[in-house]
Amino acid sequence: MSPGGWKPSDSAPTAASVRTRALRSPTAGGIVPPVPSLRASPPGAFSRRHGRPDMPRVVGVDHAGADPPRDDPHEIDNELSDQHDAATLGDIEEICDGETIWRFDRDFLLSRWTCLWGRGCEGIEPEPAAHLGLGCCSVGAHLGDVDEARLISALAATLAPEIFEHHAQAVSGGVFGDALRLHTRVVEGACIFLNRPGFAGGAGCALHLAAVEAGESPVEWKPSVCWQLPIRVDWEPGATDPDDPDGAPGPEVATVRRWTRKDWGVVGETMAWCCTEGPKAYVGERPVIESLAAELQGVVGTEVYVELRRRVTGT
Length: 315
Fold this sequence. Notes:
The protein is of the alpha+beta class. The protein folds into 2 domains: 102 residues, no CATH class; 185 residues, no CATH class. 23% of the residues lie in helices and 10% in strands. It is built from 10 helices and 8 strands. The chain has a 4-stranded mixed sheet with strand order 1-2-8-7. A two-stranded antiparallel ribbon has the order 3-4. A two-stranded antiparallel ribbon has the order 5-6. Strand 5 and strand 6 form a beta hairpin. It starts with 14 loop residues before the first helix and ends with a helix.
């Protein structure tokens, strides 16, 4: 067993079997409990029903469904892209599924934001560095809970050296960078899973590349913090019904919006560029409601997403 709680797999099981084994076994992938729960990590942005923690995206290649940038940046139809603030939302679409009141920022959903990793993304360091191809991976990935840590460790063990540039480092030192095993290691300035430009197996997140190779969605393989940007969810407790003699709270309120620089915390204070600021990243061919369909469904579930899309796009 390597010191970071990871060992390579001798076989290549399906991703589904890896996920099942990882979530059932307390030692799968070398994870040894106890590990803090999701609620002990930074505040939750994703639906707790769907098990998605709330963290900035810090690892990854392009989104599974993100569009290529359009040739003409003047076609941008998002008027708020220059001045959006965490406290300022556009028109709100509200959907209640019985457990949660979902509030969606329609302006964000109809914007043409698209991930620019490898296509001009300047990274999140104090100085712009598009040529390094680090994107928002330079701080590693925070994991939400023990189940997610087991899953990522087990999936990592299936990665071959041909698709995982830092395979040797993973074997010798593991894939985690902290004693609690809730954060991926940073190797040479970025997450251990980030293959650098020029790597023969392909640049970008090794987990993302493996998912594509397996014919599965990267949403199913990568840490949830890595596929969710720029989706942000703010949670509020449900209001108490004054007519309820037991004083039971109503459904929680979840506001779905785009991430902003403020949401990055300390990192946001120094990074040279934030992809949701200004017009640079608002050049996709499709609106977010379509291009990030998989991510939105991962956050709110399919039923809510289908209703949301019907209301926002009429389809």
